[in-house]
Amino acid sequence: MNSKKQTLTAWLCLLPAIIFLGAFLVYPMIDVFIYSFEEGYNFASQSYFGIGGYNYSYVLHDPYFIQALKNTFIIVLITVPLSTGIALIISLALSSIDKLRELFQTIFFLPYVTNTLAVGLVFMILFQKTAYTDGMVNLLIRFFGGESVDFIDGPYSAKMFVMCFYTIWVVLPFKILILTSNLASVDPIYYKAAKIDATPKFRIFFKITLPMISPMVFYLVITGFIGAFKAYSDEVALFGTDLNAAGMNTIVGYIYDMLYGNSGGYPSYASAAAIILFAIVFTITIINLLVSEKTVYYQ
Amino acid sequence: MKIVLEHLTKKFPNRNKKIKEDVIAVNDFDYEIPNGKLIGLLGPSGCGKSTVLNLISGLEKPTNGKIHFGDDDVTELPAENRGVGLVFQNYALYPHLNVRENIRFPLENLRGKDKMTRDEMDRKVFETAKLVQIEGLLDRKPSEMSGGQQQRVAIARALVKQPKVLLLDEPLSNLDARLRLQTREELKRIQVETGITTIFVTHDQEEAMSICDTIVVMQDGRIMQHGNPQDVYDKPDNLFVAKFLGTPQINVFKGVVKAGTVFIGNDRIMMMEEDFEDRDVFVGIRPEGFIPDDSWNGRSEASDNKERLICEFRKLEVMGRDSSILCANEYFEGTMIRAIIASGTEIKTPGGEVAFNIKPNKIHIFDAKTGKVLH
User: Fold this and answer.
1) pLDDT tens digits, residue range A64-97?
2) Does B57 contact chain A (CB < 8 Å)?
3) Selected residues 35-94 of chain A with any CB under 8 Å from a CB in chain B
4) Side-chain-side CA neighbours of residue B265 (13 Å)
5) How close is the nearest chain A Cα to the Cα of B103, in Å?
6) Contact criterion met (CB below 8 Å) for B93 and B157
7) Dist. CA B217–CA B209, nearest whole Å
8) Disulfide: which of A142, B116, B309, B346 matches B120 by Cβ 3.0-4.6 Å?
9) Which residues are within 8 A (CB) of B373 and not within 5 positions of it... i.e. 6 or more apart?
């Protein structure tokens, strides 16, 4: 039977991936879920006190977690819309210039090929105020008559500003690349038809260009949200490994701390926090999908 | 509104960087398009007809020359302000909008005193949709419709703002044969009903001849001939036009004019009316111009110096009302001569050869060097 053999072959081809994903993705997820309900789990003795929601209530009342939650949400809500919007503007600009386009495309794409920690170091140099120097950004601020601010060790708003600036800077190139190529793939005949009908520029953008690229924009928004919720290494690059001291911890950082950090060795709390993160990202993604049904046009 | 095209020239820089000369797409195109008529721009691929359309619409700027809409010089006017309706070859319907929104799109751009309310717009959309007979499809998306329906939506979108001129770029190319016949009648009907000056571009001469009031035949960016379709068919100005119009194609022979008489090989064909120097010519004979000579009984008996063309008989194709005689002649430019006669006519083929008398109004003599018509 040809179709039976085909089905069997198909399953055989899928088998390695299923095993791999099962062992390293599905099983750990279920495991973490179970851990999160086991109270006071002890690695050494592999035993736990009981089953219940105590882990969740601890985590949700932990001030470090609340701070991390707050930080993460601020980063997500600021960087995702801003980076997508700025990428869109830059891509549109790039698509409308003719000469030197490739030069500018290269310039805008450069940050993508740099290393997170190296860039973090450079940002520290630019923004940090030490006993010896104010940092280059502060020099600029002073030049315009303001007071110098310590962006790395100073007030919370300054630190958050650098964090968002840095995050947007790092995610921008990839978004620009995707959007530029997507814009180029829109059939120019639609623009010609719109021109004949005397359509003003802003209307062309909102009624023709944007719907044509909406699947790509949607992709960038969803992956942007998911990525931003998992932010951690960018914070470490800027503020060092003791994020709690800097008040800039993120949810992922908190989970890491709970497992290995100074206060480490609490896998139950880490598991609970991980499941909370999962629930948040899941909800946001569902909301995004529901919004996309009305707004995204697939060809 | 009449359109005057004055010495229009459009040059494009050559893609091959080694060749310095520009590609001349439209070469000194000088023509006045009368108001309210259906004009066909006809020609083979690459002759510049779509470029002329783009120049009229404003999507391209001419290198030289002027364009007038009525009495206004619109050469410098951008496409947005010219008030033309353009139907693209592949329709260019906005795929994410339904039919109603597609047709309404141009109306939403109107500003100032032309600005319409939502109700007025919807009414206009419905009216235009009725004109092209798609009023039942207003809620569909373009992807949910057939080619012919999409075509009509594109026409409606072009007409809804009541343009001064309607331009169509090969509107029937993407349709199947049956739909093509149907749609071209629709086009004629719509043009007559609205009375808008309409120009459409095509490479199909049958299409152009059947519905146009005037046709303009182009080659290599130049006008080869223009006029009433029947006149252009009956009296071609040059060899190109004679060959381009007419299905089946005109039969072309190499011939000579000697002492006022036209010869194909040794066959006397006809006497020239005017005096012409002896020269080489091309003799074009329409398929319907052949009359089998019933006084012909073979070469041995042909002592009279009658005017006839002798060809080697190959085949007789009976196609219902008409029949085609396929034959060969060493001076013929092409593979097989096709002569169309009424079915049932007796054909004598002594010695495998058939002789024809030619109707004088179906012969066209062209100078071999210039291609211009002599008779």
Assistant:
1) 999 999 999 999 999 999 999 999 999 999 888 8
2) yes
3) none
4) 11
5) 11
6) yes
7) 11
8) B116
9) B235, B236, B237, B238, B239, B242, B364, B365, B366
